[in-house]
Amino acid sequence: MTDAAYNFAYLDEQTKRMIRRAILKALAIPGCQVPFASREMPMPYGWGTGGVQLSAAVLVPEDRFKVIDQGADDTTNAVSIRKFFERTAGVATTTRTADATVIQTRHRIPETPLAEGQILVYQVPIPEPLRFLEPRETETRRMHALGDYGLMHVKLYEDIARHGHVSAAYAYPVMVEGRYVMDPSPIPKFDNPKLSGCPAIQLFGAGREQRIHALPPYTNVVSLDFEDHPFEASKPEHPCALCGATESYLDEVITDDRGTRMFVCSDTDFCTSRRDAALEAAQ
Amino acid sequence: MTPILSVRTLSKSYGPRLGCRGVSFDLWPGEVMGIVGESGSGKSTLLGCLAGHLAADAGQVIFDTRSHGPRDVLAMAEPERRALSRSEWAFVHQHARDGLRMGVSAGGNVGERLMAAGARNYGAIRGAAQDWLARVEIDPGRIDDRPSAFSGGMQQRLQIARNLVTGPRLVFMDEPTGGLDVSVQARLLDLLRGLVRDMGLSAVIVTHDLAVVRLLADRLMVMKSGEVVEQGLTDQVLDDPQHGYTQLLVSSVLAA
Prior knowledge:
The complex is a heterodimer of chains A (about 280) and B (about 260).
Chain A: H1 13-28, E1 34-35, H2 49-58, E2 64-69, H3 76-88, E3 92-93, E4 102-106, E5 119-123, H4 137-146, H5 150-163, E6 174-176, E7 180-182, H6 192-195, E8 201-206, E9 211-215, E10 221-223, E11 250-254, E12 261-265, H7 268-282
Parallel strand pairs in A: 2-3, 2-4, 4-5, 5-8
Antiparallel strand pairs in A: 1-9, 6-7, 6-10, 8-9, 11-12
Helix pairs in contact in A: 1-2
Chain B: E1 5-14, E2 17-27, E3 32-37, H1 43-51, E4 58-65, E5 69-72, H2 78-87, E6 89-92, H3 96-99, H4 106-116, H5 122-135, H6 152-164, E7 170-174, H7 182-199, E8 202-206, H8 210-216, E9 219-224, E10 227-233, H9 234-239, H10 244-251
Parallel strand pairs in B: 3-8, 3-9, 6-7, 7-8
Antiparallel strand pairs in B: 1-2, 1-4, 4-5, 9-10
Helix pairs in contact in B: 4-5, 4-6, 5-6
């Protein structure tokens, strides 16, 4: 199926080298946003151009590739990116988290614990955690350089003052190794604890904003909070309607026009494998 | 006793244009220094250089820090200077909008310096914010309102609360009463005078309003064309001006 007109994984080798250099720098300074010369990709901004460039730069022909979008393997974004690399790189693909060596994700971390040797690539819309508090890029860079993060807590303070609790449910800011405040891309805050001490390499790519940041394996990541309002990894208080899991993150699905709804695992691979296992046990 | 702020031959020019030249003075703990002069005389430039907002061309600004004793602020690294400006200094802008975060509630505005200094207890931060709102005569019930919902005088008082919450020792004020109507000015001045006396603050106040310095300042410095032309005790300078420009300034005040 490989289209011979393209270089392996679409990008030319010089571009991949440039991106790999940025990745190495980002890994050397966990949580620091490293600029890179983001290329035009054959998909619109907001569809994962940053993540696709990172995947293209780290893929080798022996890899097995998995793409998820909000946890699901079968949504438009996930299917088209998977197809893209099947066609331009000819790599094997999978939906099973444990089998994959490179996983590109939009807004979720798989429920199945990741292992050493895996790479998790995030698609990031806005990498700057301070952006909506301080619009000037020159000023946010200076704040990162000086570790001047009082403003980040002002945002959490405002949330508590207005809602009684920190209402940010996704893109919840984290402190990386006590140095850089990082936006973990819009993953639900339920996933935040999985960032810390993860054995896999985690790469974050923002195509439009031209930034790469990264967490090397076993990095200490702490979600920001107040002493009297500690961080809480919240999720809907339901079991999955399909597999019965109580510890996974759930999507709310509206099933008719009379307000009937069900809660199902957002991680489709996790849910399917649990149902398959239950089915096997029953037989 | 060491002066809290000791300025030596401070100069700053904007290319060929002069900002201020050869300014030297000592500010003692608990003292309020007024700087007056016409527009363009270098008052704000001088204040900006003292507070580290502008890079001075030459001279020294030696501040008596709490932890390390007298240090030259201009020779400090940026992180150190920022830490200093958060903890031991305060800067009150002429326009409250420059000194406040307009999109953040009053409580958040007051709490920002505390959080930047490492406070991580929501209840304590909120308590301090409420306390400070009361001290600057803002109803603590308005703690969750945004500054844009406040009147000009309230915004200015909120800015003062936000600056003083970390218990600074030195306050820089750039025309704190500019743009406010006369009755609001009077209240603000009363409030400032009370806070300065209660907290034992030292202050440098830039203004062109002689009534403000008469009320607040112990000592007065008169600037013209970037240079200090006369300095001394406030009453002495205002009642017996020696320099021609000061005489002009004093005589041009309209009697109400």
